[in-house]
Design brief:
single chain; 152 residues; mainly beta; five-stranded antiparallel sheet; globular
Length: 152
């Protein structure tokens, strides 16, 4: 298959996954400047689909990992999200973080293959021109980070 067709297909899958995550009422968001809860998303968003460049769109970045993909996005009103789509491997204990000026972490959770965990944080003094990052720390293993969203 032609590389452009393959890349376009991967981007379409990733955008579909992001759309599903964005429209799923999966998070109990707190007040501005407070973290929401980590939630498992439905099976419809179980495809990792991170393009090799790590760029989904202006506000969304990702990084491919051996057993899935880590994503981050920034949205209107200071809503910052990080999510991990796990498509293989053993169960892990992990936490997700969003980086703005400092890293804000979720609580620790367990994640199994075939699930997506999402962490959302609302930054009360959000500046849309500031870069953001997504983080994941796996207990007893490594930490991972997405490429940054661009500054203006």
């Amino acid at each position: 298959m032609h590389p452009i067709v393959t890349r376009t297909a991967r981007i379409a899958v990733a955008v579909a996954a992001i759309s599903a995550v964005s429209t799923t009422p999966a998070l109990a968001a707190g007040a501005a400047g407070t973290a929401g809860k980590v939630k498992t998303s439905p099976a419809s968003v179980q495809t990792a689909g991170c393009p090799s460049a790590g760029v989904i769109d202006w506000n969304t970045r990702c990084t491919s990992l051996s057993n899935g993909a880590l994503y981050t996005s920034r949205g209107p009103g200071g809503v910052l999200k990080t999510w991990y789509v796990k498509v293989g491997g053993d169960r892990v204990e992990a936490r997700l973080g969003v980086g703005y000026i400092a890293i804000t972490w979720s609580g620790w959770f367990y994640q199994t293959s075939g699930t997506t965990k999402v962490f959302q944080y609302t930054q009360s003094d959000y500046d849309a021109c500031h870069s953001t990052w997504g983080y994941m720390e796996v207990k007893g293993s490594s930490s991972y980070v997405t490429p940054s969203t661009p500054s203006c």
